[in-house]
Write a structure and sequence with these properties.
Elements: H1 3-14, H2 17-25, H3 40-46, H4 50-58, H5 73-80, H6 83-91, H7 106-112, H8 116-124, H9 139-145, H10 149-157
Helix pairs in contact: 1-2, 1-3, 2-4, 3-4, 3-5, 4-6, 5-6, 5-7, 6-8, 7-8, 7-9, 8-10
Pfam families: Ank (PF00023), Ank_2 (PF12796)
Protein name: Ankyrin repeat domain-containing protein
Keywords: ANK repeat, Repeat
């Protein structure tokens, strides 16, 4: 593994703004991927490091970069439940309708894991409720499987 990628990812994971700033200034590749396909932005977002994520985005990190499974930073924060970072990514034009390797979307993650505040955010940013995954399951189906009645109600209202 390239030591610069390791430093970038460690700084993103811990939210070390000083080190990230230094690495950005040195011209480090902000879209470099580690052995799992994670970029520094994905790692910062998955670890709820909003300030690091914002710094990376301001420096030109690709908002819709995906790991080797097709998961984006937005999908990760929808799974984990970080609405402020979801807003940040969407403000930087993250595409809420991208599908990962199995056809799932950020909206599907939010619905499956009961992240109903994020469902509202995604819908306000154009998330498409009609997309189905590789099994033919819709966001409504996935929410129902998990017993997310509130999520279904939100989806039906929008």
């Amino acid at each position: 593994m390239d030591p610069i990628i390791t430093k970038l990812n460690d700084a993103a994971r811990s939210g070390n703004i000083e080190l990230l700033t230094d690495l950005i200034a040195s011209g480090a590749n902000l879209n470099a991927k580690d052995e799992k396909g994670f970029t520094p932005l994905i790692i910062a977002c998955y670890n709820n490091k909003a300030e690091a994520a914002k710094l990376l985005l301001m420096a030109g990190a690709e908002v819709d970069a995906s790991d080797f499974g097709g998961n984006t930073a937005l999908m990760g924060v929808c799974f984990k439940g970080y609405p402020a970072i979801a807003e940040l990514l969407l403000d930087y034009c993250a595409n809420p309708n991208l599908q990962h390797g199995n056809g799932g979307t950020a909206l599907m993650f939010a619905a499956m894991f009961g992240r109903n505040d994020i469902i509202k955010i995604l819908l306000a940013h154009g998330a498409d409720k009609s997309i189905v995954d590789n099994r033919g399951m819709s966001v409504f189906d996935l929410a129902a499987q998990q017993g997310n009645e509130e999520g279904i109600a939100i989806l039906e209202q929008n």
